[in-house]
Amino acid sequence: MKKVIVISGDIIAYTSLDDAEKTVLEKQLKVLFTDINKTYAVFGRIVKGDYIEMVVENSSDALAIVLLIKTFIKSVSFSKNLENNRTKSFRNYGIRIAMGYGELSRYDTKKGIIDGEAIYMSGRKINDESTHNKQRIVIKNTLFFVSADEKLNVTLTTILGLLDVLMSKATSKQCEVVYYKLLGKNEEAIASTLKVKQSAVNQHSTNVGWNAIEKSVNYFNALFKAMES
Fold first, then answer.
1. What pLDDT, on a 0 to 100 scale, did the predictor assign at position 84?
2. Could you count the other beta carbons within 10 Å of the beta carbon of residue 157?
3. For the whole prediction, is pTM greater than 0.85?
4. Are 162 and 65 in contact (CB under 8 A)?
5. Are the C-beta atoms of residues 103 and 114 closer than 8 Å to each other?
6. Which residues contact 58 (CB under 8 A, 6 or more apart)?
7. Can you state the percent helix, strand and coil of the chain, rounding each to 5?
């Protein structure tokens, strides 16, 4: 099988959410998967409510999908404010995501089998960075790329580090705008969807650093298309 990117994602501080908040999040994740499947050819699943696995056969799409997941989860709204330190970490960071680039020795969507180098790499990275059962959450990075190519790892880790900074500072409204832009919607359509003025969408877009985000996604897309052509 050709090389693919497997995305492994671990929702931060999921166990600190109450049952009602978990239910809201689970329902919203179904919306996320529906939106992604409308645009990209992927196989994804949710494990135990807080762990995402997704196979991206067109590797060039992976960064856009990672940012869709990240911005969607950061924009999820609950009926009450999240106040303690662990739940504030969920609000600030949302999810930790790793991309593993490699082959899969066994892959069967009907049987739900994902096995091989790519998922081992992404899964190990997420487990290494896990904050489960830790009293105090210390988060330095939430976006990771792992492959057998160290030069590629260094290049993409640099880009992901910059995106991490932008995402950690992004508000839920800014994340909503980025999410819809990543789905290809223009500002007029986003304004209509969010029921706000187009100028507000433009302001959120500017403040979150959309130009840098878009350039990073385009660079990633072109890099993998060139590598795999």
1. 55
2. 15
3. yes
4. no
5. no
6. 40, 41
7. 55, 15, 25
